[in-house]
From TrEMBL:
<dbReference type="InterPro" id="IPR001736">
    <property type="entry name" value="PLipase_D/transphosphatidylase"/>
</dbReference>
<protein>
    <recommendedName>
        <fullName>Cardiolipin synthase</fullName>
        <ecNumber>2.7.8.-</ecNumber>
    </recommendedName>
</protein>
<feature type="transmembrane region" description="Helical">
    <location>
        <begin position="6"/>
        <end position="23"/>
    </location>
</feature>
<keyword id="KW-0443">Lipid metabolism</keyword>
<keyword id="KW-1208">Phospholipid metabolism</keyword>
<feature type="domain" description="PLD phosphodiesterase">
    <location>
        <begin position="237"/>
        <end position="264"/>
    </location>
</feature>
<feature type="transmembrane region" description="Helical">
    <location>
        <begin position="30"/>
        <end position="50"/>
    </location>
</feature>
<keyword id="KW-0812">Transmembrane</keyword>
<keyword id="KW-0594">Phospholipid biosynthesis</keyword>
<feature type="domain" description="PLD phosphodiesterase">
    <location>
        <begin position="412"/>
        <end position="439"/>
    </location>
</feature>
<feature type="transmembrane region" description="Helical">
    <location>
        <begin position="62"/>
        <end position="85"/>
    </location>
</feature>
<keyword id="KW-0472">Membrane</keyword>
<dbReference type="InterPro" id="IPR025202">
    <property type="entry name" value="PLD-like_dom"/>
</dbReference>
<keyword id="KW-1133">Transmembrane helix</keyword>
<keyword id="KW-0444">Lipid biosynthesis</keyword>
<dbReference type="GO" id="GO:0008808">
    <property type="term" value="F:cardiolipin synthase activity"/>
</dbReference>
<dbReference type="GO" id="GO:0032049">
    <property type="term" value="P:cardiolipin biosynthetic process"/>
</dbReference>
Amino acid sequence: MKIKRFEWLIAALMMVGGYMVLFMDVPRWWKILCITLYAVIIFYTVLALWLENRPAHTTLLWTYILVLLPILGYFIYVYSGQLLVKGELFKSKRISDRQLFEALGKKQRPLDLSNLNDHQRCFASYLDKVTLTDQNQNTTTRILRNGEDTFQEIKRRLVEAKDFIHLEYYIFRYDRLGRELIEILKDKVKGGVEVRLLYDAVGSMSLSKPIIKTMEEAGIRVQPFLPLKFGWYNQKFNFRNHRKIIVIDGKIGFVGGLNVGIEYLGEDDDFGFWCDSHAVLEGEAVQTLHAVFLLDWKYASGEILFENEPYMRPVPAVGDGLVHVVATGPETRDMCDHYYTMITCATRSIWIATPYFIPNQAIQTALRVAARKGIQVRLMVPDTNDGFLTQYATQSYFPELLRAGIEIYSYEKGFLHKKVIIVDGDLASIGTANVDMRSFQLNFEVNLFLTGTDSINDLVAHYEEDLKDCRRIRPVEFYKRRMSVKWKESFARLFSGVL
């Protein structure tokens, strides 16, 4: 609390001093004093930033912001959470997560990797060492393609719920689809089913207080994640919960790229057809997925639910491979490492589909090296993105990828939103994390890593079908793009660290 008060005091001094210098007729020595105080504050902040030994480009970026944007730069730095990046950021959540996942791990049987091939064992061994969650052999998975299949299955499973329904979404809109789901949830509450909905306060800003009140009056427990009124004060506004989770009775789990909104059904005129992927799982891995929700719920509401036996009881299923639920966030920042290791374990092919491709240097290097080793590397991105910066920042990485021999495909049927990586046709990732700096550093994400499961065959088949709606970007054609486009790409790339 003392640190927060100190930061508020510094911010207030800077605002008052700036107003005095610019708008008030005060003695000259007062203005000199205010300017000197401002310079000392910026010097101290930059010095503290340098001592953290972050990557050089990140340190230089924030140094430029602090120095070149008077007063505003300090506010951007503080209230994007940068002062809390080292050690203190979401510390309580990090401790709770570790304690619960370690307790769950003690219940799991030893992992048998003997039936895996070399590249599968390479990645499975890595995950086993570095993640808090366990890989499950007693879980079945099924891939749901696009919005219609996904929400038909979700509605069917919600109606069948007996004990509890827990939902967690980045975007939950109160449109036709949202209202349909809410009506199902209200009916289940009347039947004695416990229902909890956790939504991100920024992603789901369209959920107004009257709508939330209506749900609460119907018996649905509703909780925002990092609400704005606290987000600004706690300097966590820039960190968002990007997860999409449903757990029903501890037996059924849903995770993937689809939020709740009619655009995910392809009914939004601006986006058109929506290409996405979701997964439904049954078995022991549902317990891990549920633990992710329960920990997020505890952090947001303070309510501890994972001590209740009904919520944490595993329900094994006959599995056909390894299923690993992995949650990452600004308190761990591991998703980049997981993607990097997948890429480096590949021996034949790497297929990536992502709406936002803003990689760091490690991912860029891994993809280029893989392609130059003769591994087939394919990247599928939307032809038209949902933002100027993401559109042109993604394109800015094409030249180096094309020079390395990487195949780039532009999806033209509609908006590509799936987040899928397939390695050698028998190792895959599906979930909420994009290949961008926001998913790597700022967002709370959750992915399924699949090893040798039958569902990977569906991911492969869907990828190949989506390729039919793509235009391959050829180097000669791409290099002829207008200079104005190149300028846009270079400008957008400057913001890669926050996209």
